[in-house]
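Final report, closing paragraph on structural work. Over the funding period we assembled a curated collection of sequence-structure pairs, and we close with a single example.
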Amino acid sequence: MGISGLLTVLKPIQVTRHLSDFSGQTLAIDAYVWLHRGIYTCATELATGKSTKKYVDYGMQRIRLLRHHNIQPYVVFDGGPLPAKQGTESGRKQRREENLAKAKALAAEGKQSQAREFYAKCVDVTPQMAYQFIKALRAEGIQYVVAPYEADAQMAYLERIGLVDGIITEDSDLLVFGCRNVLFKFDFASSTVTSISRADFSSVTAAEGGISLAGWTDTQFRAMAILSGCDYLPSIPGVGLKTAWSLLRKHRSVEQVLRALRLEGKKSVPKGYLDAFHLAEKVFLHQRVYCPLDEKLVTLTELPAEQGYDAEMEAYIGRYLMVIHCLDHATH
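Its predicted structure, as stored:
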């Protein structure tokens, strides 16, 4: 999940913090991250059709821990599939099917421990599982929202409008969406998280992380991440994060980078890559989200008036939905 190598590059500014440091704050939680972790505790049962709700228990234990430290959880669920991620999701589905076949074969041979490894890789979070988690949240009066599309964009929006102070996730994409305070590696046993603050980006130097972000704008950071390969656009073969940084540092713009790569001829730039890049960038900037203040769908950031909408962009950022996935407040 996220941008390959990004967290490693940002390691110099990662800080381990105790949950008590966030007392009095509201933190958005990527529900599917905890659900995915939770289903690993009962993967065999789920893959073989046995009834279990251990994945709900996993999430609720962490919710209660946050509340113990006077943190208000705001749980965010993924909504409908985003067309921009169709290729990513179909690849994941194929891998799950392959792992299920391997698990069944190993179980048939009596190799249960090996089978469990593959069962863990083949199960996926279903809407029914998410609903079970939602019911548990309702029972304890926890705020939640189902995003119209991706939880990432929804959490970024909640932080942008001031409804949450930070985000708990395992997905580095949140940093590309522009989030200011992102918390990774939630450790239940020690009640700690690893914090990355956007305000510290300029402290990342080439000597420490292999790249320098000093003086870089959000636009440059986002361009680097997309060029290196993201959920919405595969990378140009041979272009990873550090190469993308180096190319942008030298050539300044994506257009100039692509021109230089084509002239050099060592890396093959796919046909239509620049248009695909701009569409991917629009997903990070303008994906549709739900505004709980105005109770309507909006874009993460406003589209410039001169851009307007066309069918291709509409599909990428998420079509406007007539049925709104609204917020259930604690008093609901």
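The first helix runs from residue 6 to 9. Residues 6-201 form a domain with the Rossmann fold fold (CATH 3.40.50.1010). We thank the funder for supporting this effort.
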